[in-house]
Specification:
By secondary structure, the protein is an all-alpha fold. Helix content is 74%, strand content 1%. It has a single domain, classed as Farnesyl Diphosphate Synthase. Helix 3 runs antiparallel to helix 4 and helix 4 runs antiparallel to helix 8.
Length: 334
């Protein structure tokens, strides 16, 4: 591991403030449509905030490799558009009422309009990316989109059923970590006049960083879904269990609990509610077997793996920021 210091949150904000603001403006421009409802839905989703961690990763990857290409702004907007499109579709599939403490878009506009607006955002993201005239960029985005759709379909097939850790990690890679990975790879693919072999050499460590960070991010999300307060989380707690999703802490407890404890968890997953088994009882089981700690320890291990994957990058402010991000991911409360 490099001995350079880890950046502070303030230093990361200072480093990226202008670029992130430019990405927000680009997103706004690219999401304008002659059909007003599309623009309205996109504007509403943008106003909901979010961590913007995916464009942040793309920017840091590009900066770490010395790129100042304008492509970083355009592609930063692309990955945020893709992420936003997935959120729209997820809320429809999950029948979610809230997102980040506000009514979900489908609650406001209805499922039919929102699924089409999500489709439009996907296509607009690709149209924007096409301006790069870069086959590597398109290859990454096409593969990403296929992985995310496959992940959603696989998850739908497994709702209400027990899964093992291998299946869980495959799901969260497709649904979350793949976009983190591609965000980093896109940042590596837009070097200013960089030779193809130089870009290729950086693709693997950047991709590994994104993959490991994305896995850590989703595991933490899943733990927060079980433990955070609703007013902090911005949506109902234990949504995953209500939707029949077995996440890492739950899988850990299922493998260690008594017959009665396993049956209690299976009942919630099958019922998709807490009518017969209260949420508090599930939390007691998870605490009894250290399952929440196990999940957080796993997330921290992936976060550290992300840091280690960029150990050979030359020292820079961007590298210091990349070393900061894993700690932010594992210590957040929402």
């Amino acid at each position: 591991m490099s001995s350079i210091s880890i950046a502070t949150a303030a230093e990361v904000i200072d480093l990226l403030r202008d670029d992130l603001s430019a990405i927000e403006r680009e997103f706004a421009v690219q999401s304008e449509s002659s059909v007003q409802v599309i623009t309205d839905i996109a504007t509403y989703l943008m106003a909901g905030g979010g961590k913007r961690i995916r464009p942040l990763l793309l920017l840091l990857a590009a900066k770490a490799l010395g790129s100042s290409s304008d492509s970083r702004i355009r592609l930063g907007a692309v990955v945020e558009m893709l992420h936003t499109a997935t959120l729209v579709h997820d809320d429809i599939i999950d029948e979610a009422d809230t997102r980040r403490g506000r009514p979900s878009s489908n609650t406001t506009w209805g499922n039919s309009k929102c699924v089409l607006a999500g489709d439009w955002l996907y296509m607009q993201a690709f149209r924007t990316a096409l301006e790069e005239r870069n086959f590597r960029v398109l290859d990454l985005l096409i593969s990403l989109t296929q992985q995310m759709v496959e992940g959603e379909l696989l998850q739908m097939q497994k709702l209400g059923h027990l899964i093992n850790e291998e299946e869980y990690f495959d799901l969260i890679y497709r649904k979350t970590a793949c976009l983190f990975k591609v965000s980093m790879q896109l940042g590596a693919a837009i070097g200013d006049g960089a030779a193809a072999d130089a870009i290729s050499a950086q693709d693997q460590p950047m991709g590994e960083y994104g993959r490991n960070l994305g896995l850590a991010f989703q595991i933490v999300d899943d733990v927060l879904d079980l433990t955070a307060a609703e007013d902090v989380l911005g949506k109902p707690v234990a949504s995953d269990l209500r939707e029949g999703k077995a996440t890492l802490a739950v899988i850990h407890a299922l493998e260690r609990g008594t017959g009665a404890e396993r049956e209690a968890i299976r009942t919630v997953l099958a019922d998709r509610n807490f009518a017969r088994v209260p949420h508090s009882q599930i939390l007691e089981i998870l605490h009894r077997y250290g399952s929440l700690d196990y999940a957080m320890d796993t997330a921290c291990a992936y976060a550290e793996a992300a840091r280690l994957s960029i150990a050979e990058l030359p020292a820079s402010d961007a590298k210091r920021a990349l070393l900061w991000v894993p700690g932010f991911v594992t210590s957040r409360d929402r």
